Every structure is written in C-alpha cells, then in structure tokens.
Amino acid sequence: MRRYIKLYGYERLVVKAVVVVVVVVVVVVVVVVVVVVVVAVVVVVVVAVVVIIVVKVLLVVVVGGEGGGGGGVAAVEVAVAVVEIVVKVVVVVW
C-alpha cells in the first residue's frame, strides 16, 4: 500500500514557490541562450559583409578596377565570393 506525504498549507505554498522559481529560472536561461545565439549570428554576418565591402573597395582602389591585376587579386576575388556564399547560406538557413 502506498503512503503519500501529507502537505499542510504552508508546505504546499513552499512547494509551489519552488516550482515557480525553477520554471522562471529555466525560461530565463533559455531566453538568454537564444538571445546570445541570435546576437552572435548577426555579428558574424555583419562582420562578414563589412569584410566583403572593404575587400571589394580595396580591390577597386589598389588595382584600379575589377578584373585587373595578377593572380593574387584573382585569389582575393575567389575568397570574397566564397565568403559571400557562406554568408548567404547562413542567412537562408537561419
């Protein structure tokens, strides 16, 4: 035969208070984690876009136009294209 613990009025209040505190803490932790992840993704995308813009401007300024120059410039253009693709994939997946 099972025996149940009999809780009196104040004990029930304590149990309810503990449950409420635990639920609130869990919700706050989940919200904080989600916010941190969203901010991290936004920061990464913004930094990548800024890097792309800076590299393209430098290519235009240093080389004197798109497509000019030697193999180093071509390698930088390929790297910029790869970063652009990665940023687009991250944005679409997110």
UniProtKB/TrEMBL annotation:
The chain crosses the membrane at residues 12-35, 41-62, 74-93. Keywords: Membrane, Transmembrane, Transmembrane helix. This is ABC transmembrane type-1 domain-containing protein. It comes from the Eukaryota. The keyword Membrane applies. It comes from Elysia marginata.
